[in-house]
Design brief:
The complex is a heterotrimer of chains A (159), B (199) and C (366). Chain A has 159 residues and is an alpha+beta fold. Chain A is built from 5 helices and 6 strands; from the N terminus they run H-H-H-E-E-E-E-E-E-H-H. In chain A, the strands form 2 sheets. In chain A, strands 1-2-5-6 form a 4-stranded antiparallel beta sheet. In chain A, strand 5 and strand 6 form a beta hairpin. In chain A, helix 3 runs antiparallel to helix 4. With 199 residues, chain B is mostly helical. The longest helix of chain B is centred in the C-terminal third of the chain and has 32 residues. In chain C, helix 7 links the parallel strand 13 and strand 14. Chain C has 366 residues and is of the alpha/beta class. Classes of the chains: A alpha+beta (159), B mainly alpha (199), C alpha/beta (366). The interface between A and C is medium-sized, with 24 and 33 residues.
Chain lengths: 159, 199, 366
């Protein structure tokens, strides 16, 4: 993928203090196109599909919602806490406003953590953007596979 | 018969019938086909074309004969005519907006589109080729516009009626059948030929 | 060589003349001069440059009519009554106006061009939306992540709002945040307390305005507010009401209850369920307890979802507590404020208890 002027514009909106306080990129200083490409490659190499990840995370969030922000143990493995925040947050791609409400997950098996919200899922699903290195909202494909025990998509033949 | 002795009134009617700019010269076809789906908007566009061609014909006559010819710049006529037409569409837009918001909104995008309507430019070029006098060019501009309006109104009337009454084979629906109808109307207009010659 | 120069000169001259002609035409035809817009029979009056549409002209005077499509005439929300000076009704407006509206001079303001003096009528609420340069009178820590802020309006100005509405608070540029940013917060003070405004703000991790409020604002600082906005307020009826809130959602409910006291509404029973995790998340308890004592129509029910200590409050999730307290809700009216998730869960419970959906009010907080 090429870093188009459009992506430049989007990347500017991902900087800290534009849409959110800490931004979407962490300490990552690669071009947005390269960030997306790298994660796409990882996903391909692992034969994973974004839809799998998004569906699983959505399901986990569902099970933690409406509990007055209490921590809940799901599947006897994941500690989940969903924040009740009011208000909405805009997508850097300009394709909508998404309800706030971060989900925090601690995987008791691996000790790894994940953090996401409706906007992060949208960015993964629609734009293959998993977050920059060092961003607390990064859903790293490799660690998410480990945390969620994802199986490769079956119908994709091994090359 | 010398063209310059023909009465402007005759030119006006000839421009509507025997020399209809749309049905004999097939100029201004794009907006003719696009806007002829219903009578109301086609009448609006027709009115706008009458306006613009009536105003620009004499001005283009002046520009050509009083400005381009003395300086031997006839080859610039295309550019000059287009500039004049563009400017006048702008002015007419402003006037209509001021005078009647209702008409302004009905005409909508058609007004600025007239700038690139080949019928208007064709009208300016014909009055040069045919060596009309100033008065004749006014009559011709008005006639050409009226002829164009008449043709689009006729087509729109037929099309809106056909929409309700006729079955058109799917392959010919839309522009296809519109072109066929245009052809038939044009043939009917051949009936006028021979009454008078203005070119 | 000379022929080229003449060509350029002649064309330039022609263009020049036409431009001049256009400018003259613009001066005569597109210049509408200064027009006066009279709002609500002399309540307000603007002197404006004519030529633009009414919606934009009013916006330039900081009178904001609601608009969904931004003035393209495709949503029909920017209606207002034009008593005089609008010109004929346009075909572009027809689809959005009922016969009754057509006869009573209602127009789409984005389609009406200001070309002469105009007299219009807009809903009272829109006139009260204003911008306020306030000074922070006090900041109170309510819980570990909720603060109450009291803003003093400039000397001589007052705000008129309906209890339950919200206002937008602006943060000034700080740290990485290079631009002014605004977020909506519900007003928690009573409408009678009109020389000041109180907001309840809960810290949102990574939130730009809440971080500013929590880390940078202090008493005595200046702050900019715009408001009031919103369709969340007490409806006129005789029904018993039930209010449910969590977290900072307490704010508009407090305003509504205080307003009921001020207006002497005592014929309606009101119960306020406030959901929290543990005692440390409760605030304004003493105030609501005092109200409960003084006004027999009011009942305050805090519910703690996870507090094993000894406490006098109800135990359990707010939705369960509400369900426990009522058999049937056919005759009640509900006011909800909280996160979208909480509102959704409460709606389910209320509807299952027989409450008609159109009597559940909550803040969409757009």
């Amino acid at each position: 993928m090429k870093q188009t002027p459009e992506l430049d514009r989007i990347q500017r909106k991902m900087q800290p203090g534009v849409l959110t306080l800490k931004g979407f990129l962490g300490h990552d200083d690669r071009k947005l196109a390269d960030i997306i490409d790298a994660d796409r490659q990882t996903m391909l190499a692992m034969h994973l599909d974004v839809a799998q990840i998004v569906a699983k995370l959505q399901d986990l969030a569902e099970r933690g919602v409406d509990l007055m922000e209490q921590e809940v143990l799901v599947d006897n493995r994941y500690l989940i806490r969903v924040r009740d925040d009011r208000g909405k947050i805009a997508s850097p791609w300009g394709d909508g406003l998404f309800e706030k409400g971060d989900v925090d997950l601690v995987d008791q098996k691996t000790g790894k953590t994940l953090k996401w919200n409706r906007l992060t899922l949208r960015l993964i699903q629609k734009h293959d953007f998993f977050g920059g290195y060092g961003s607390e909202y990064r859903i790293d494909p490799e660690s998410v596979r480990e945390i969620l025990d994802l199986e490769p998509v079956a119908d994709e033949p091994q090359v | 018969m010398d063209i310059q002795t023909v009465h402007p009134f005759v030119i006006f009617f000839a421009a509507i019938t025997t020399n209809n700019i749309l049905l004999t010269n097939f100029l201004g076809m794009c907006s003719f086909l696009a806007v002829s789906k219903d009578l109301k908007s086609s009448l609006g566009l027709g009115a706008a074309v009458i306006f613009v061609s009536t105003c620009t014909a004499p001005i283009n006559w002046l520009v050509y004969h009083k400005l381009l010819v003395p300086y031997e710049l006839e080859y610039l006529q295309y550019i000059a005519f287009i500039i004049v037409i563009a400017a006048f569409t702008q002015i007419i837009e402003m006037v209509i907006e001021r005078v009647s918001t209702l008409l302004y909104l009905t005409l909508g995008i058609f007004l600025p589109l007239i700038t690139v309507n080949c019928a208007i430019l064709g009208c300016a070029l014909f009055l040069v080729i045919r060596q009309y006098t100033f008065m004749q060019s006014i009559a011709y501009g008005m006639g050409a516009g009226t002829g164009w309006a008449l043709a689009i109104a006729a087509l729109a009337g037929i099309r809106s009626r056909m929409e309700k009454k006729s079955k058109v084979i799917p392959e010919l629906e839309g522009a296809g059948i519109a072109l066929v109808i245009t052809g038939i109307i044009a043939m009917a207009f051949i009936g006028f030929s021979g009454i008078v010659r203005i070119n | 060589m000379t022929s080229i120069i003449t060509a350029v000169l002649v064309l330039s001259a022609l263009s020049g003349i036409l431009t001049l002609l256009l400018l003259i035409a613009e001066f005569f035809f597109a210049n509408y001069g200064e027009c006066t817009i009279d709002v609500n029979k002399g309540e307000k009056s603007f002197k404006v440059e004519g030529g633009a549409n009414l919606l934009m002209t009013l916006a330039s005077q900081k009178l904001f009519l609601p608009s969904g499509c931004g003035g393209r005439g495709s949503c029909g929300t920017c209606k207002c009554r034009v008593l005089e000076g609008a010109g004929p009704l346009l075909p572009t407006e027809m689809p959005y106006l009922s016969d009754e509206e057509k006869t009573s001079n209602v127009r789409l303001s984005c389609q009406v061009k200001v070309r002469n003096d105009i007299r219009i009528e807009v809903p009272e609420e829109l006139l009260s939306i204003k911008e306020f340069e306030t000074v922070i009178e006090s900041i109170t820590d309510f819980t570990h992540d909720i603060k109450g802020l009291r803003f003093k309006l400039p000397e001589g100005t007052t705000i008129r709002f309906k209890a339950g509405q919200f206002a937008n608070l602006f943060s000034r540029p700080y740290d990485d945040v290079k631009e002014e940013t605004s977020r909506a917060y519900s007003i928690s003070s009573a409408p009678s307390d009109n020389k000041a405004l109180e907001l309840v703000i809960r810290y949102v991790p990574n939130g730009m305005v809440t971080t500013y409020v929590f880390n940078h604002l202090k008493a005595g600082d200046k702050a900019r507010l715009i408001g009031p906005f919103g369709e969340f307020f007490l409806r006129d009826s005789d029904r018993e009401i039930i209010c449910i809130a969590g977290g900072s959602g307490l704010a508009p409910i407090r305003s509504i209850i205080l307003d009921m006291i001020d207006r002497g509404i005592s014929n309606r029973k009101a119960t306020f369920f406030f959901g929290a995790v543990s005692q440390r998340d409760l605030y304004y308890v003493d105030e609501f307890k005092a109200i409960e004592k003084a006004h027999p129509w009011f009942r305050f029910v805090p519910a703690l979802s996870k507090d094993d200590s000894d406490h006098p409050y109800e135990n359990g999730l707010i939705t369960d507590v509400v369900a426990r307290n009522y058999d049937s809700m056919n005759e009640l009216e509900a006011y909800l404020c909280g996160s979208p998730g909480m509102i959704g869960a409460c709606c389910k419970v209320l509807i299952s208890k027989g409450m008609p959906e159109d009597r559940i009010y909550f803040d969409k907080f757009s």
